[in-house]
Design brief:
By secondary structure, this protein is α+β, with helices and mostly antiparallel strands. It has two domains: about 35-205, no CATH class; about 245-275, no CATH class. Helices cover about 35% and strands about 10% of the residues. It contains eight helices and seven strands. The chain has helices spanning about 10-35, 80-85, 125-130, 155-160, 170, 175-180, 205-240, 255-260, and strands spanning about 45, 60, 95, 105-110, 115, 120, 190. The strands form three sheets. Strands 3-4-7 form a three-stranded mixed sheet, with no helix packed on it. A two-stranded antiparallel ribbon has the order 1-2. It has a two-stranded antiparallel ribbon with strand order 5-6.
């Protein structure tokens, strides 16, 4: 004969509460570890270059893990320079300038060479020939490009600031830009599908969108955790004060089944606890 342990409502709620808390904390721990990866391996970062024939993107392997900390921008090798790009694609969306205020506004419309799904240039090597307005970033023009995104690694290093934790060179994960909501991938329209006169309707606050995607899951988890905590506290309080068990908890069927079918098979012969 097998020994069967039956949890009371109070014990079950306590167990569910601690289970959700563990999952929530574990999720956040894994997320943080994915951004702050161990520093005993070579950093691998995806190249911001091209997706020729939609083949798999090539990877750069940067031997010196923290080269940007002791190498100035004008002293970097071509490989080091290219690896600084986090592949966000924000510099490749169309921008509008207010003639009166000189303010720059970003849109959610990508350059005609920008793959809207991956935020990668589909002809990086020939981009200047195919798009004459395309600007090839260099140390000569970097100080003049005030429209560069505030999160851009080139701009940050030029201003003497540090790279963010989500940057692929820091995280070691080439997808960390997308995972943290810093990429425009999947959130832009192709230039060929938008009329020029409609561009003002596509002005977008990318700074807000960067934060919203990252915080959405966190807010949702906290809401669910709060609701479960309220339910657990209420159930425990009911058990401790000896309040009568609600009718729906005396049935084996779920509340949904009870509402839809009206079925109710009493648990423990209608008793609050098993004999």
């Amino acid at each position: 004969m097998h020994n069967v342990t039956i949890l009371s409502d109070s014990s079950a709620c306590r167990f569910s509460f601690f289970l959700v808390v563990s999952v929530f904390l574990g999720h956040n721990l894994v997320y943080q570890l994915s951004l702050i990866r161990p520093w005993f391996y070579r950093h691998v970062t995806v190249t911001p270059l091209h997706c020729e024939d939609r083949r798999q993107l090539r990877w750069y392997i940067v031997q010196d893990k923290f080269f940007w900390q002791h190498t100035s921008l004008d002293e970097m090798t071509p490989t080091q320079w290219e690896s600084l790009c986090d592949g966000c694609g924000k510099c490749c969306v169309l921008k509008l300038e207010d003639c009166d205020t000189n303010n720059i506004y970003y849109t959610d419309v990508g350059c005609k060479l920008l793959d809207c799904k991956t935020a990668r240039c589909c002809d990086y090597q020939n981009r200047k020939d195919r798009v004459p307005d395309c600007i090839v970033l260099s140390m000569d023009n970097l100080p003049k490009l005030r429209w560069m995104p505030a999160s851009c690694a080139y701009r940050l290093l030029y201003e003497g600031k540090s790279l963010p934790d989500w940057h692929p060179l820091i995280s070691g994960n080439p997808m960390s830009t997308v995972a943290t909501g810093q990429s425009v991938a999947g959130r832009i329209f192709p230039e060929t599908a938008i009329d020029e006169e409609d561009l003002p309707d596509h002005i977008t606050n990318w700074k807000w969108m960067e934060q919203s995607r990252r915080s959405l899951m966190s807010r949702t988890m906290w809401i669910l955790l709060g609701l479960l905590a309220i339910l657990s506290i209420g159930t425990i309080w009911r058990q401790e004060t000896g309040m009568p068990t609600p009718q729906h908890l005396m049935c084996k069927e779920s509340l949904f089944t009870q509402v839809v079918t009206g079925a109710c098979t009493l648990r423990f012969n209608g008793k609050k606890e098993p004999s």
